[in-house]
Amino acid sequence: MLKAATRQFTAQGINATGMDQLSTVAEVSKRTLYTHFPGKDELIGAYLRSLVDDLLPVSPSPAQPAPSPREQLLAVFDWELPKTTAPFRGCPFLHVSVEVPDPGHSVHQLAAAYKREFARRLTDIARPAGAADPETLGEQLALLFDGAAARGTALNSSHTGACARSIAESLVDAALSPKSARLASRRTSR
Fold first, then answer.
1. Mean pLDDT lowest for which of 48-57, 127-136, 140-149, 167-176?
2. Contact 163, 149 (CB under 8 A)
3. What is the DSSP letter of 130?
């Protein structure tokens, strides 16, 4: 059921996908669907939670050898898309935020929590990379990612990731430069 929901939500959005349609696509009765998910909000929440691990930047771990922190920061812009004729849909968390604009709604809150965690993970990677201001770099890269995903959706193009990666390289290199480190140390010593 969750796979069917993921396909439908990705293809046509959550508001355009009804529970009747989902039960048909998933080949289950509505009763079975509602047994597993009491309402559409619970299904949307399960859908978002199923995506988190695959979409968040991997937190640094001394147990697993990983690319350099710089490459980890840039890797979030290396979008690999399946070979399909389906439209580029960008970030599902942004889509949910747009389709459910009420900031108090549970699925909107899940999407917002994901976006905060995304920036926090980038900050956690920027710190060992030696960024002079890892919090600012994390937020800048998160904003750049979201902008590229939104633009890619509007233009139905995954090529915005390559352009965003080029901009990210400039941001990361500037944040890791010795001059940035001196400026940051001056700001903290005041």
1. 48-57
2. no
3. T
